[in-house]
Design goal:
The complex is a heterodimer. Chain A is mostly helical. Chain A has twelve helices and no strands. The N and C termini of chain A lie far apart (61 Å). In chain B, helix 2 packs across helix 3 and helix 3 packs across helix 4. Classes of the chains: A mainly alpha, B alpha/beta.
Chain lengths: 290, 276
């Protein structure tokens, strides 16, 4: 049996406190890697590739009536903008959309406020969402036309339906997930009722509310275009959906594509500019979302 | 052994700031009602650092919530300055353990100003001045415009403390505010809270499950036994500070509390030492 200790006892050390040296602790990544970090750059590259594939496919089919190419569509789009026709249609569509969207948000606010303050309100919200959320807004259009006639009121009605349920569901889930300590802190300072909702619940639930707004926006936009395809004719002057439908009837396929491109572009613009800015200045700045 | 000290009885004229009388607290858990505390009474005087100490399930946090007005007693009453506590109010400001007590959408400065404005105590200008004062007191002046998610846990708790003290409440309620911090930060925070008290002599009701923290921070400790919470003892600890951690007297008192809480009358083989 050996007498050596295991582990051995070693000498103690004390070093002088390190002085601030000029050693580099963090350094930038190489340029190529930094550029690749930009999502917008990567996505633009993808778009260029897709446009190229489209143009090649169009040249290969060589049939303007069925598949106009990227360049032809771009020209039709530019003409539409230049003549003001496309801009006018987009303006008409957006005007209706904003009204329906705002009304939907207001209705969702009332419904969720009711739901967070009373149990019967909660039951009401859960039941209504379960019933009506799966119902496509466009399926209500025939009914809306019966009730409100062939006009803006019918469009607003179906847009409200498209916005209300996903937004109410998102906002309600957001309110539910507000931490108990934050609620207690708010009540501690004497916040009650509407002030409590406005100063604690809504900002705390903002990530879910913004998500609901985004889903609501997408639903509203596609519902509106679809609804315009159905009855733009009778209401006299239709919006973007009617522009697409009319040009298909007249076999201006390049204009149909230009109309579709406008639908997509506006969708992208709102998502990447409006909602992106909203998220950057609120929830991401506050560290509530990545 | 503990050195003898003279017990000074509060003169009859001095009324306690907070008086809990036979407080029984119950909470609903599914289909059952669970009794958290059973007929607990204690008095907190102005300038006290009163600690509620006990193991999990002794109802100490529930008592604090009841004092805050977040929980209504099933029996008994809690009064502050003679008025019965019925709802939360800015005269009793709470600091919780959880970091999410700070609204993440407000900067440090806005967080400290928030209760001053929400309770309509001060105008914006005065609230700004007072917030700056207290943010300086907790050493966060450089971070006044930072959002909470960029701060460390200890800094977040400092903001919560500054926010509470800026309100100049009658009584400050703290529910294990340092329990989620690492040991080194916790010790720093205990020291800073002690210094703040030296300076402003606020009244503190403090909940903890650490015997050492209770001895170091408090001047009077209410020991609670669990299931349901009942008063086991009320002892003095004003003679201990952060630097009495190693003293024999401190160890003996810690042992005594340990014995009272866990029933073991025989001295423990290994004294419980929580990192200090």
């Amino acid at each position: 049996m050996s007498l050596t200790l295991e582990p051995p006892i070693r000498q103690e050390f004390e070093y002088p406190a390190p002085a601030q040296t000029g050693a580099v602790i963090d350094r930038p990544l190489p340029l190529a890697e930094r550029l690749w970090q930009y999502g917008a750059l990567r996505k633009s590259l993808l778009l260029i590739v897709l446009a190229l594939v489209w143009e090649l496919a169009a040249r290969w089919t060589n049939n303007d009536l069925l598949l106009p190419g990227f360049l032809q569509t771009a020209r039709a789009f530019a003409d539409g903008i230049a003549s003001g026709e496309l801009i006018e249609k987009v303006g008409l569509s957006l005007a209706v959309l904003v009204q329906g969207y705002a009304a939907g948000i207001a209705a969702a606010f009332v419904l969720t406020t009711l739901a967070v303050s009373t149990r019967i309100g909660r039951d009401l919200l859960e039941t209504l969402v379960a019933m009506l959320n799966p119902l496509p807004a466009i399926a209500l259009l025939p009914l809306a036309m019966l009730w409100f006639g062939l006009g803006k009121a019918s469009l607003v009605f179906v847009i409200v339906h498209a916005v209300l349920w996903p937004l109410a569901l998102g906002a309600y889930a957001g309110f539910q997930s507000v931490p108990e300590t934050l609620r207690m802190a708010g009540r501690n300072y004497g916040l009650r009722g509407l002030r409590f909702v406005l100063q604690i619940l809504i900002p705390a639930a903002l990530p879910s509310i913004v998500a609901g707004l985004k889903i609501g926006w997408a639903f509203a936009w596609r519902t509106l275009i679809a609804a315009e395809l159905v009855f733009g004719a009778s209401s006299g002057k239709g919006g973007l959906g009617w522009y697409i439908f009319q040009n298909r009837n007249e076999l201006y396929t390049d204009k149909v594509f230009a109309g579709l491109a406008a639908v997509i572009l506006i969708g992208l613009l709102v998502d990447n500019v409006v909602f992106n800015v909203l998220e950057r200045t609120t929830v991401r700045r506050w560290g509530m979302a990545k | 052994m503990a050195q003898p000290f003279q017990v000074v009885r509060p003169p009859a004229a001095v009324e306690p700031l907070l008086r809990a009388q036979d407080v029984t607290l119950e909470y609903r858990s599914g289909a059952r009602t669970v009794r958290a505390t059973d007929s607990v009474s204690f008095d907190v005087y102005k300038g006290d650092r009163f600690v509620l100490l006990g193991p999990s399930g002794c109802g100490k946090s529930s008592l604090l919530k009841a004092a805050g007005g977040f929980l209504a007693p099933a029996a008994g009453s809690i009064t502050v300055n003679g008025a019965r506590v019925t709802e939360p109010g800015p005269d009793r400001v709470a600091v919780f353990q959880e970091f999410d007590q700070l609204p993440p959408w407000k900067t440090v400065r806005q967080n400290v100003m928030f209760p001053l404005l929400a309770s309509k105590r001060l105008k914006r200008k005065e609230a700004e001045e007072r917030a700056a004062h207290w943010i300086g007191k907790v050493g966060l002046s450089r971070f006044a415009d930072a959002y909470p998610h960029t701060l460390s846990g200890g800094m977040k708790q400092r903001v919560a403390i500054a926010r509470a003290l800026a309100m100049q409440p009658d009584i400050l309620l703290m529910d294990e505010p340092f329990a989620a911090l690492d040991a080194l930060t916790r010790r720093n925070m205990q020291e800073e809270l002690g210094l703040l008290w030296e300076e402003t002599r606020f009244t503190l009701l403090f909940v903890t499950h650490s015997i050492e923290e209770a001895l170091v921070l408090g001047n009077r400790i209410l020991l609670l036994s669990p299931h349901p919470g009942r008063v086991r003892a009320e002892i003095n600890s004003h003679q201990f500070g952060l630097h009495s951690g190693g003293s024999a007297d401190f160890q003996a008192t810690a042992q005594r509390i340990h014995g009272l809480l866990f029933g073991g009358s025989e001295p423990q083989a290994e004294p419980e030492r929580i990192a200090l």
